Amino acid sequence: MKRRTHLRVRVIGAAVLLVMLAWIAIVVAVVVVGSRDEAAPANAIVVLGAAQYEGHPSPVLRARLDHALELYQRSLAPLVIVTGGTGAGDTTSEAQVSRRFLLERGVPDSAIVMETHGLTTSQSVHAVAAIVSALPGQRVILVSDPFHMLRLSILSRALGLTPLTSPNADKPDLDARQCAVEVRVRRVAEGAHGVPNRTSVGLTNLDADWHCLGSLVSVSWRQFWLP
Q1: Which CATH number is 217's domain given?
Q2: What does the pLDDT look like over 99-118, one tens digit per residue?
Q3: Residue 190: CA atoms inside 13 Å, Cβ hemisphere, count?
Q4: For residue 193, what are the domain limits?
Q5: How much is the pTM?
Q6: How many domains, in total, are found in the chain?
Q7: How far is CA 148 from CA 3, 26, 33, 43, 110, in A?
Q8: Structural contact between residues 190 and 197, judged by C-beta atoms closer than 8 angstroms
Q9: To bridge 50 with a disulfide, which of 2, 61, 148, 169 should be the other Cys (CB 3.0-4.6 Å)?
Q10: Residue 84 belongs to a domain
Q11: Which is nearest to 148 in space by CA: 73, 220, 51, 49?
């Protein structure tokens, strides 16, 4: 009996250790990928949507757009694809707000493509894959926050794209509280449109809470370990 109990304790301990190691591996992967800028010539720059407030981009969305604008001005791609649907109670989509922002800063209308239906990262990336399929190549620069890069890269590759991650790592200084606000806005929009808040398709569909954790870890990594 004692031997059986001891064996059970060892099995449980080993299982807990494996879960902890897997969690640590995911966090490390999120931080490493989020610290890497792979921007290079591509067929399109893809800006992942984030909250907008009464037609104005939130700090998170503006940071992504500023970074995408910089990449476009470096002539790394001829097109900018902006994503994001219309949230609950909104009259305009995230993509339309992003388009207006870029137009006001000199990007020609012919260089902007909108994806206006996606309310989740997965929906937006699937729509982007369909748009890019009509282009001469599948190479895209993905613009989002550092903690978002691993998920985007995995999902994009699964859909046949060749992703180059380019996080807006240094602007602005968004903390976990801002991230939580963005998550709540997204979840309200998803719920209003009948989109499940949580999914269980493995690493490619990590819940938004993981993004906030990744954000905090990524900021800590940059502050204490990176020059």
Answers
A1: 3.40.50.620
A2: 999 999 999 999 999 999 88
A3: 22
A4: 30-227
A5: 0.70
A6: 1
A7: 46, 12, 9, 21, 28
A8: yes
A9: 61
A10: yes
A11: 49
